[in-house]
Amino acid sequence: MNPLIHSPFDLCHGCQDTLSCPSPIQSNECARGCQLAEPLESFYETYETHTYVDIPRFLFAGQSNMEGHSSDNMNNMFHDIRMIIRKGLNKTETIEELTSLILSTPQKKSVPSKRTARGMASSLFTTKKFIKNRSTKENAYCSFTEPEEDEILDCERLVGPEACGYKHTAFGPELMFAHRFPTFDTMFQNRQIGITKVARGGSTLRQWMKKNENSEDESNYWTVLRDAIHATKDTLEAFVWFQGENDAWEHISAQDYFGNLTEFVSDVRNEIYNVTGAKFSQPSEIPVIIVEVGTWAFSLSPDVLQAQRNFVANDPFSKKVNTGVTPKENKMLSPYYHYDAASYLIIGNRIAQTMKSFYGD
């Protein structure tokens, strides 16, 4: 894996944004940002000044569902959700249409029950104003670095439905988180925020661990995650981890996953603490959110979910976000291995709600 450039995050200077690239690039490369569209050496020869925004940031990391494959299950689902909400129907009519949309997934083996679909539709309705309005968040930035694909850390761009998801053509939980979290009555209310995302689909937890960074047996992403932490300078406020499907696929035991997760989170906290200085009294007090695996991974093995819940139960500064494994059918989500757009919006809202609880009621 190529080493990443160790530098603060810069604002993307995309050719279709309000800023322009320092040298010409093709229009179809805009979504990747100038830094990924030009040869590395020539880019830094022409780009003399860096634009760094000093805002509170949240570190998001994990595997494919953190990457964000919102179009995988149903290609135009997000667009269709917005069109339904923009009709201005009453609550009952809106929920009915959203329910029908959710049930129309072409992935026939992964169709949720009607009660689950209705529960998802009801959850979407509660956040309708965030979906109805501009899909690009004007006061929130995100970056998405894919360790196997990107030679340098991604630049930051305005959060949108095609900003920081898989190959910058989709979205993950960051979209609704960015819209929702700054509205809560916390120290971050009405402030600009940033989301620093590092994710790799199909990765196991051990591939992210510091102790395995020099492994010759498989790729390791600790160095990339560490560089992303340092690139944020002292602005990180919390860590969100969304991973576990591949460990469930490999039938990693609950004991092993718990031990690995405990060590990994400790290393991440220590790295953040070393960068942020006096912001936290000690590393263990850095807020951590574990986004649980969903029904697909749980059907492969219950051990990862058990380990995730055990970790949160034993860590006073961590909280969990449910993504579908619950006895309450109306709280379940898409059973597809990649969540649909509706589920990503709901998960992002749940992460925002959970993050809020770290800073007061």
Automatic annotation (TrEMBL):
Residues 167-355 form the Sialate O-acetylesterase domain. One of its GO terms (molecular function) is hydrolase activity. Transmembrane segments: none annotated. It comes from the Eukaryota. InterPro entries: Carb_Esterase_6, SASA, SGNH_hydro_sf. Pfam families: SASA. The keyword Hydrolase applies. Keywords: Hydrolase. The keyword Transferase does not apply. This is Sialate O-acetylesterase domain-containing protein. It comes from Chaetoceros tenuissimus.
